[in-house]
């Protein structure tokens, strides 16, 4: 688990409106509670499918993706004015402390969440991705996570061994300094709202 990327050659699938059955734009906005002067980050933004939905409701939306080729694909379809591209991993975000009002990830937590052995990050990062999020999200800011469930259908989404269960994800977030406001285990996904 952890530190995977979505294949760029399959990026067209990220624009499938069928994705809304796993997290609708209304559900995402309700969990994120964006404000017109807000600064938020889309973690693993890909082609901007959900960034397009959130951008009209904030001042600045950072489309964060480790793959610059995903930003190129996003640019091809057109980018809302509020969107700024950031090519970085979640464990090394180029923001100051408390810079973000919120952040969200849709089906990407399994790509950046830490895989640990005896409390040590197996990838050797100086700072773990969740601790980095706790650093850049202001006190009271929200982190919304919707991802494939380890208990979900193995025919939908990434392999089960790459996924996290609700208890594991909430434990990781709490250990990084987040308070869990909402935690739901759904048929295919988990949904978590955590505040710093």
From TrEMBL:
Keywords: Methyltransferase, S-adenosyl-L-methionine, Transferase
Domain Methyltransferase type: start-end pairs: 42-144
Molecular-function GO term, any one: S-adenosylmethionine-dependent methyltransferase activity
Keyword NAD applies: no
UniProt KW Nucleus keyword: no
GO BP: any one term: methylation
CDD domains: AdoMet_MTases
PROSITE patterns linked to this entry: UBIE_2 (PS01184)
Protein name as catalogued: Methyltransferase domain-containing protein
Lineage summary: Archaea, Methanobacteriati, Methanobacteriota, Stenosarchaea group, Halobacteria
């Amino acid at each position: 688990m952890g530190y995977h990327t979505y294949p760029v050659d399959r990026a067209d699938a990220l624009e499938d409106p069928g994705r809304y059955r796993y997290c609708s734009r209304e559900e995402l906005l309700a969990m994120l509670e964006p404000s017109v002067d807000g600064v938020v980050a889309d973690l693993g933004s890909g082609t901007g499918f959900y960034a397009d939905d959130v951008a009209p409701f904030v001042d600045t939306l950072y489309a964060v993706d480790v793959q610059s080729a995903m930003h190129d694909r996003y640019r091809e379809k057109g980018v809302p004015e509020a969107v700024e591209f950031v090519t970085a991993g979640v464990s090394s975000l180029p923001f100051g402390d408390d810079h973000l009002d919120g952040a969200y990830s849709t089906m990407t937590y399994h790509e950046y969440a830490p895989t640990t052995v005896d409390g040590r990050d197996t990838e050797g990062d100086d700072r773990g991705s969740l601790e980095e999020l706790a650093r850049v999200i202001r006190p009271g800011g929200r982190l919304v996570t919707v991802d494939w469930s380890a208990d979900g259908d193995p025919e939908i989404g990434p392999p089960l061994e790459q996924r996290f269960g609700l208890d594991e994800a909430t434990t990781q977030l709490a250990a990084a300094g987040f308070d869990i406001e909402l935690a739901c285990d759904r048929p295919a996904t988990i949904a978590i709202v955590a505040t710093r």
